[in-house]
Amino acid sequence: MVTFGNDELIIEPIIKAAFWKNKKIPYKNIESIEATGESVFFHMKNSKVIKVDDPAITAFYTRFGDILRDYRIPFKTSINEVGYESIETVRERAASAKETALAYANLSIKEKLGPEYELTANIAERIIGTTLEFLLLKDGEIVKEANLDESIDGVEIVDEMDIAFLNEWDPATDSGLYFITKEANERSACEEYVKTIILDELCEMDLKDLD
Question: Model-level pTM?
Answer without folding.
Answer: 0.88
